[in-house]
Amino acid sequence: MEQIAGERVVVWGDSLAKGVVWNETRKRHAYSKLTAVDIAANKLGIEIINRSKFGCTAPLGMELMERDVNDGIVCDTAVIEFGGNDCNFDWAAVSERPEEQHLPATPPEEYLESLRAIVRWLVARNIRPVLMTLPPIDAERYFHFLVGDRLNPKHILKWLGDVQQIYRYQELYSLMIEKVAREFSIQLIDLRQRCLENRGFVKKMICADGLHLTEEGQQFIGEAVVDLVIKENI
User: Fold this and answer.
1) Structure confidence at residue 1 (pLDDT)
2) Sign of torsion, CA 36 193 168 116?
3) Closest among 39, 153, 29 to 91, alpha carbons compared
4) For residue 36, is it within any domain?
5) What CATH number has the domain bearing residue 206?
6) Residue 67: which domain range?
7) Looking at CB atoms within 10 Å, which of 73, 104, 125, 187 has the fewest?
8) pLDDT tens figures, 201-225
9) What is the pLDDT of residue 24?
């Protein structure tokens, strides 16, 4: 029996964990009818409180967790999923000034320290931390999405070097999640590996924005979480 059975579980994360999808018809983001978290909760037969926020970074997530616990949210296990916004850049600034140095929303070392702080904070309150790696992105589709009709693609490419640098940078943040899990000997839901094992994941399960999951992707991730929780005795 997986450890999570019978526990009170809270997920703190960003729009990925919140279940945000891209609505191609309305050309805007929306919430999935059935999120990966919902699917996992139903299949595992447990209640999961989803406190994820659109646009949330690891430092902001720490603040959110503190407020939630102070406001009375109680849990035995916390599933942590941050990184997608932390590794993102101010692309308008990059487009305007490609010759300058630009930093991501949360620079790598600050992100690493934020993850460590989150784990320490949870452990100090007898809450079991479980980290989650980041599903891969489609760098080409994301590049076209972020450029749109407002930004200068040549300037951004000049700064990046190549489009796949976006993928590699996001991968760096996912690797740091693995690093922190090893440092603290805590459990890890390695979604990235599961996604990469599926040859159709990037094209079929990532939205037109190159970042968020499709409805099919939500189903895939929800089932992957269940499988990993059971196999890894999480």
Assistant:
1) 46
2) positive
3) 153
4) yes
5) 3.40.50.1110
6) 9-228
7) 125
8) 999 999 999 999 999 999 999 999 9
9) 83
Residue 129's identity, in one-letter code, is P
Q: How many H-runs (helices) and E-runs (strands) does the chain carry?
A: 11, 7
Helices (H), the chain: 15-18, 36-44, 58-70, 91-96, 108-124, 139-147, 153-160, 165-184, 191-197, 201-205, 215-231
CA distances to 50, 65, 118, 127, 148 from 181, in Å: 21, 19, 12, 15, 37
In a domain, 143, yes or no: yes
174 part of a folded domain: yes
Q: DSSP letter at 33?
A: S
Domains of the chain: total:
1
Residue 15 to residue 19: CA distance in whole angstroms: 6
The sign of the CA dihedral 46, 10, 213, 160 is negative
Where the chain has pLDDT below 50, the residues are 1
